[in-house]
Amino acid sequence: MSTLAVVSAGLGQPSSTRLLADRLAEAASGALRSGGADVAVETVELRDHAHAMVDAALTGFPAGAFRAAVETVAGADGLIAVTPVFNASYSGLFKTFFDVVEPGALEGTPVLLGATGGTARHSLAIDFAMRPLFAYLRAAAVPTAVYAASEDWGSTGSGLADRIARAGGELAAMIAGRPAAAKDDPYDDPVPFEDLLAGR
């Protein structure tokens, strides 16, 4: 079973950011299933965790439902990360979430990047803001990212559906080709206390 985590940083409800995240998840999970894999999709709406994210940034410890959301993302086989573009970059909500994720938690994780904005002129934010962020986190971003401007929705000539399908296929291929992560828990087989006392 492959787990696909989807992070949506949309502020509205509904939002075009969540819509793009859902379309990308459908494309990636469909490509995985067509290859014979079972896949579970888990979506994290950051707006639902806004206060908990600030608390975690201040204390260094995510708690409650937000902790479960962070663990979902850190433990996934693949990640879809979608943000609205504000002031030529990702949103503060989006950045705060990835600031809270433990260092190394996303190392080697295949990730599909997506963004939404009012006009196409914001599309470069994916390459000059999002890609460097995930490179720093040592995640493996797929080649095709998807930016959706307002005019892309409902436009037959925008090519949005083709970009979504291509990006979803690339993410599925990376997940399918990734070695299975080690699931060993060092606490499953603890050293007996007597042996510790005896120095063994």
From TrEMBL:
The keyword Oxidoreductase applies. Gene3D superfamilies: 3.40.50.360. Its EC number is 1.5.1.-. Keywords: Flavoprotein, FMN, Oxidoreductase. One of its GO terms (molecular function) is oxidoreductase activity. InterPro entries: CE1759_FMN_reduct, Flavoprotein-like_sf, FMN_Rdtase-like_dom, NAD(P)H-dep_FMN_reductase. PANTHER family: FMN REDUCTASE (NADPH). This is FMN reductase. The lineage of its organism: Bacteria, Bacillati, Actinomycetota, Actinomycetes, Streptosporangiales.
